[in-house]
Amino acid sequence: MSELINRMIAGRLEEAAGLLQGDGADPVYVRAYALAASSVRHWPISMAVMYRHRGVEGLEEVPGVGPSIARVIRELLTRHRLPPLARLHEKPNAPASNTGPAPPAVEELLDVDREYRRKAAAGELQCIAPLRFNAARDAWLPVLRTRRGPRRYTALFSNTERAHRFGRTHDWVVLYSRDETGEHQYTVITGGHGALRGHRVVAGREHECLAVTRRAA
Q1: What's the pLDDT at 193?
Q2: Is the confidence at residue 136, as pLDDT, over 70?
Q3: Most exposed of 6, 94, 130, 158 (fewest Cβ within 10 Å)?
């Protein structure tokens, strides 16, 4: 049922993107709705469940879903319809810019990764049943929500096809970060070679992680 609800909402968000494109909206707005649709379609928790327990703020935890799109999803859940086109033209997300908080340091990302893995191993986190690669619908995937300064984080093990193929579903950790510049995604893995072998590494920021490892040595 949750998969059907998320697919329905994703389809309506894609419809909204098409309406905006046909109405000559800013391409950034069109792209924002398309990206939100993709996130909702693959999100492992039902949008209805998230809204019921945490309201619009809960919906905003989905990467790519800002305040305006969250309100659109609320309307889809409660009134089963898209809002008027004029409402869709509202700014869908805070745009990324060079102002505001700097990107998180790798030390912060690795600290969130440590908190997640420690609490997951101790059984302290709520587990959800991901929709993909989970025919038995087992609730095996722990989810952490935490803060570091101005940033809100959601952390969970990777449930991608690649993670399953390489047997890394309990090693690769995906971090979703939200601040006033928007949403950002990071993946933390265990290094497999060189000086970072056996160390936790933020993918794409290996040089910074190497410097952290050397300072700690």
Answers
A1: 83
A2: yes
A3: 94
Residue type, 108: E
- Can you count the helices (H) and strands (E) in the chain? 8, 6
Range 176-214 burial, b when 16+ CB lie within 10 A, else e: bbbbebbbeebbbbebeeeebeebbbbeebeebbbebbe
Closest CA to 160 of 131, 183, 140, 197: 131
| Alpha-carbon torsion angle 43, 103, 56, 19, nearest 10 | -70
All structural domains of the chain with their residue ranges = 2-88, 106-216
Q: Residue 184 contacts by C-beta under 8 Å, 6 or more apart in sequence?
A: 103, 176, 177, 178
Taking the complete model, does pTM exceed 0.85, yes or no? Answer: no
Architecture of the domain delimited by 2-88: Orthogonal Bundle (1.10)
Phi, psi of 43 (to 5 degrees): -70, 135
Checking DSSP bridges between strand 126-128 and strand 141-148, what pairing results, if any?
Answer: antiparallel
